Amino acid sequence: MLGNGITLEGLGMLKAVQALTILGFGTFVGFSSGRIDRKLLFLAGIALCCAWLLLSWTAVWIPHDKVKPLLIFMVAEICNGCSLALFQNNTNSYLIDIYQAEAPAAASTEKQGTGLEKLFGQLGKLHFFFMALVSLLSGTFYALFPRLEFLYAALLAAMIGVLAWYFLPPCLEEKSQKGGDFPGATAFRQLLTLCRPHKSALALFLLAATLFQVVIQYWQPMAAVFPPLATHPGLYGLILFLMLLAQSAAGHVLQKAATHFTSSNLRLYLWLAGGLSLFGFSAGLLWHCLSGLVIGLAAFMFVLRLTMLQLSAGLHAEIPSRLRPRYDMTLNTVLRLCTAAVLPGAGALATAWGPLSLLIPGIGFLLFLGLKPEKQSSQPG
C-alpha cells in the first residue's frame, strides 16, 4: 500500500475501517455461528478473502490519475474485515467442536485446559509454519513479479477454498445449540459470570493482541527505514518468514508444555525470548542495526503469540460450546475497538517521531511481562 500512494495516516485509517467492519459484521457471525453450519461460514470467509486480494490487485494496476487507490483499498479492507470476522468469531468454536467430537476419549481423559493448550499449540505451530513458508515464497515471487503479489495470493486462497470444501468435515455441533432456545441476554449474563474470575487474563490478552496488531501493521515501515530494504525488497519476505516462524515455535512450545513442561519452564521461555527482543529493539533504536530489529521483532512475535495462545486456550476451556461464538464475538469486538483507537495514533506517532518509535510500547510490554508476578490461581485452565 505504501508504494501505491497510501500514506502512513492513510494506512492507519484503512486499518481502522477494517477494525470497525469486523466490529459490525462480527456481531452477525457471533449470533449466527450456532445456527449456520460453521464449515459454511469458514468457506464464506475464504471467498471474501479472495475478493479482498483481487480488489487490492486492482488498486495496484489501475492508473492513479483515474481512480484514487485509497477508495479501492477501502472497499478491499471492508471485504478483508468481513473475512476476518468470519474466521475470528467462528473458527475456534468449529475447531474445538470437531476436536471433541472426533477424539471424545482423549478429550474426556485430559484436563480440559491442558487438552485445549495442546490443540491451540498444534494449531499455532502448523498455521504459522505454513504461513512462514508461503511468505518466503511470496518474497521471492515479489522480487520477480513486483505487481502480481495480490493476484498470486488470491489464486492461493482460491485453492485453499477448494481444498476446504472437499476435505473439511461438517460442524458436528449438538442440536441443542441451534435455534433460538438460548436468548442473547441470558448468554451474555452467563458469559459475564464465567469470565469475571479471569479479568486479569482477559486484560493481558487484549493488551498483547493490540500490540500484535500494531506490529503486524507497521513492521514494514519500521524495516523500510533501513537502506538495504530499498535495494533488496525480497528481504521483506525473509523478515516476515522469521516473524511467522517465531510464532510457529511459540505454538510448538505451548503444545509441548501441556504435557512435558511446568509453568516455570514456560515462563523461562518467555523471559529468554523477551530478553532477546529487548536486545534486538535496543540495537535497532540505538545503533540503527537492521539485524537487531529483525531479531527483536521475531522474538517479540514469539512472546506475544505464546502469551495469546496460552491465555486463549485457558479461557476457551471455561466456556461451553454454545457460548464460544458469542465469547469470541465479544472479545474480538473489544479488541477491534482497541485497535480502531490505537492504530491511527500509532500512525501519527510513526509520522512524527519515525516508525522505530513504535518499538517503545513493545519494550514497555516486555518489561511489564517480565516483572509481572506469576499467579497460578488466576490462570484459567
UniProtKB/TrEMBL annotation:
The record's annotation in Gene3D superfamilies points to:
MFS general substrate transporter like domains
Q: Where are the transmembrane segments?
A: 12-31, 40-63, 69-87, 126-144, 150-168, 201-219, 234-254, 266-287, 352-371
> Can you tell which superkingdom this protein's organism belongs to?
Bacteria
Write out the entry's keywords from A to Z. Membrane, Transmembrane, Transmembrane helix
Name of this protein: MFS transporter
- The organism is Oecophyllibacter saccharovorans
Provide the taxonomic classification: Bacteria, Pseudomonadati, Pseudomonadota, Alphaproteobacteria, Acetobacterales
